[in-house]
Structure formats: structure tokens, C-alpha cells
Amino acid sequence: VITRPVTYWDRLGWKDTLAREENTRLQRAYAARRPEGSGVYTPQMVVNGGGGAVGSRENDIRPLVRRADRNGPRISTSTDSKGRMIVTISGRSAYLAGVSLIALSSSEIVRVGRGENGGRTMHYVNVIKAERNLGSWRGKPARFVLSREDLNISGADRYAIVVQRPGAGPIVAAKLIEG
């Protein structure tokens, strides 16, 4: 699970300190593709870049998770003699996908100032702190090298590698790595 707080509630007079405009754009791109449960609302859960549901409705989310395709490429990691992380993506496919490194904070507490949740304290998990495109996966084995600096983003204590088809397409592989 990656939490991507959005900015469109800023108009209510309180800005979520974790919200990022990139998250808002991604949610709108998912909605434009019109998969099951699409739209622009919170809390929303989008499963593997495909179908979505109200994030607090477990009975709607479980079927999406069960139907998620798990036959994509495999991501493995190792460390070389220089202390760099080597990310290997193996598998074969006819499609192109982008490979991203996502820096995450495993736990964030935010006190909501205004809006329907005004006065409440929210606990978020795996909140995105930064995202960087590592390159493309072209359906055959590929390697990406991450330096220690790549895995030293302020506020992040874990990282994820995500392989996603273009245009807010399906996520075909993902791996959580500790920082």
C-alpha cells in the first residue's frame, strides 16, 4: 500500500502537509481511464493501477485485490561490493513499462485543521515522500543501480520499486524495500 495524499481539498482552507500535486494528477489520470470504481474522491484505493473503491470499504476492496494480476515480472534486489543496491527485473513481456523508485515514510500523523475531518488526527502509512523515474522496462531482464544517496531521502524510512505501464496504466510489479 502506498498512500498518496491529494491537493484538491486545499480549497477548504486547510492544506494537508503530506499532499502532493503529482498525486492529484495521478488520481485524475486513473479516473480518466475509467476503470471500475474510477472517479476523483477520497478516501480512494486504486489496486495495481486498475480498479478502485472507497478506501474505507473493505468488502469492496478485497475482490479487487483477489483479481489483481500477479503474473508480471519479478523484482529482486541485492547489494554490490560498493554498497549500492542492484534492482533486477526479470520476466518477458511485449509491453513497455516505467520503473520508479518511491521513497516512503512508514508512519505519519497529521492533525486535520478544517473540512469534514477538522479536529481529527489521521494516521497514514507508507506516505510518498519522493518519486524518481529509474528508466524503462522493455519486457526483458533489466538492471538498475541505486546509490546510497538514492536511498537516503529526507523523511523516508522505506522504499518501493514500482513497474507501471504508461499513462497511469496497470502496475505490473512492485516490491517494498527497507531503507
Major pleated sheet: 4 strands, antiparallel
Number of helices: 2
* Secondary-structure class: mainly beta
**Overall mean pLDDT:** 90
How many angstroms does the end-to-end distance come to?
16 Å
Helix content: 10-25%
Radius of gyration: 17 Å
Count of extended strands: 9
Strand and helix order? HEEHEEEEEEE
- Residue stretches low in confidence (pLDDT < 50, at least 5 long) are none
User: What topology, given as strand order, has the largest sheet?
Assistant: 6-5-8-9
- Beta-strand content bin: 35-45%
The backbone outline, from C-alpha atoms, is globular
Write the layout of secondary structure elements.
Layout: H1 21-33, E1 44-46, E2 52-54, H2 58-67, E3 74-79, E4 85-90, E5 97-111, E6 121-137, E7 142-146, E8 158-164, E9 171-178
Antiparallel strand pairs: 1-2, 3-4, 4-7, 5-6, 5-8, 8-9
What does this structure look like?
There is one protein chain. By secondary structure, the chain is mainly β. It has two helices and nine strands. A four-stranded antiparallel β-sheet has the order 6-5-8-9, with no helix packed on it. Strands 3-4-7 form a three-stranded antiparallel β-sheet, with no helix packed on it. The protein is globular, with a radius of gyration of 17 Å.
Brief characterization of the structure:
With 179 residues, the protein is mainly β. The protein is 13% helix and 39% strand.
